[in-house]
Specification:
It is a single chain. This protein is about 60% helix and about 10% strand. By secondary structure, the protein is of the alpha/beta class. The protein folds into 2 domains: about 15-105, no CATH class; about 135-325, 3-Layer(aba) Sandwich (Rossmann fold), CATH 3.40.50.300. The longest helix has about 30 residues, at about 5-35. The two termini are about 50 Å apart. Bound molecules: zinc ion. Zinc ion (ZN) binds next to loops.
């Protein structure tokens, strides 16, 4: 199933309701007008008898079937023509009684011959942004609006950032669970790590995957909630399951959360479980040296991060400061 299970179920349910509502509204419009115009009511009754008439014709001799159906079609054509005339005479548009679907392509089914309609895909992508936690960032943090010109002040910086940008974009475009590696974005504040993490998350969602994005602080506070905050009677969904279940997990700002042994153990378990099941991660961090990582967490976590993740070094000057200076 594409995207994430609960988003898919919710959108599917929304479509069923939408279609039902469209039919109900058309029936209501038809009934209201038929109550007012008796001739229209009679035409509607005759048109409604089409099905039973065809059924009856099918019971008769096969040799006559084609001619009978043609006759019914011809009569129906005249009935519909008259119906439109009546609507026009009474000041209504000729499609007033038709079912008005939000999407005429799939008639609010969400798919056509088993292929997902564009309208449903759009809805699932929006739902995916929201579930991932990037709905507020998705519009501003894309590959398209990542401005590499901020790195042009130094040719070396520009070349390296352009390389990182191209590789990360390519990674997102070709993302596949079980195949794609995990990435580690290393570098100081304001060098574009968050921007490219979100852009990658966004693209991977658009390719119908289930993505979760979170800052280390938020992820670990969910973990703390599961440990200490949840009461025994709380039957709501676990707050941390999604970090294990999603196709791609993006952890931003690793190293800024509160440091405890339990957090380190949780992080190790999370990384280890995901690596073991072939589910990629993108982790960005201000910790740029092995020593800093070992000191912050422990050797096990550091060796996972440094040994199993593909590293990208973000270099240069704080882009946020450059932008600020240019806007003054
Ligand atoms: Zn559609």
């Amino acid at each position: 199933m594409p995207f994430n299970r609960s988003d898919y179920a919710a959108v599917k349910q929304e479509y069923e309701k939408k279609k039902k509502d469209a039919v109900t509204r058309s029936e209501e419009r038809t009934k209201a007008l038929c109550d007012k115009i008796p001739e229209l009511a009679s035409l509607c009754r005759q048109l409604a008898a089409t099905g039973p008439r065809i059924f009856e014709a099918a019971q008769g001799p096969e040799s006559e079937l084609e001619a009978k159906i043609a006759e019914i079609k011809k009569e129906n054509g005249l009935l519909i023509k008259r119906q439109k005339q009546i609507l026009e005479e009474n000041g209504y548009p000729e499609d007033w009684l038709d079912i008005k679907y939000e999407c005429e392509i799939c008639r609010d089914e969400g798919n056509i011959d088993g292929v997902m309609c564009v309208c449903m895909k759009k809805k699932l992508i929006s739902a995916g942004y929201k579930t991932a936690g990037i709905d507020g960032l998705a519009a501003t943090h894309s590959f398209e609006n990542f401005d590499l010109s901020y790195y042009r002040y130094d040719n070396d910086v520009y070349t390296k950032m352009k390389y990182a940008f191209d590789r990360i974009k390519g990674y997102a475009e070709g993302f596949r669970v079980g195949v794609s590696p995990s990435l580690l974005f290393l570098g100081g504040t304001g060098l574009g790590k968050t921007h490219l993490s979100v852009a990658a998350a966004k693209r991977v969602i658009e390719l119908e995957n289930y993505v979760i994005y979170g800052t280390a602080q938020n992820i670990f506070s969910d973990f703390e909630y599961e440990r200490f905050g949840r009461s025994f009677s709380d039957r709501s969904e676990s707050r941390t399951d999604k970090y294990f279940d999603c196709d791609l997990l993006v952890i931003d700002d690793l190293g800024t959360e509160i440091k405890t042994q339990a957090v380190t153990a949780f992080l190790y378990n999370l990384i280890n479980t995901r690596l073991g099941s072939g589910k990629p991660m993108i982790i960005s961090t201000n910790l740029t040296s092995p020593d800093a990582m070992i000191e912050r967490y422990d050797e096990r976590v550091a060796s996972r991060l440094l040994g199993e993740f593909l590293p990208y070094k973000f270099i240069g000057k704080d882009v946020r400061m450059l932008k600020l200076r240019q806007s003054k």
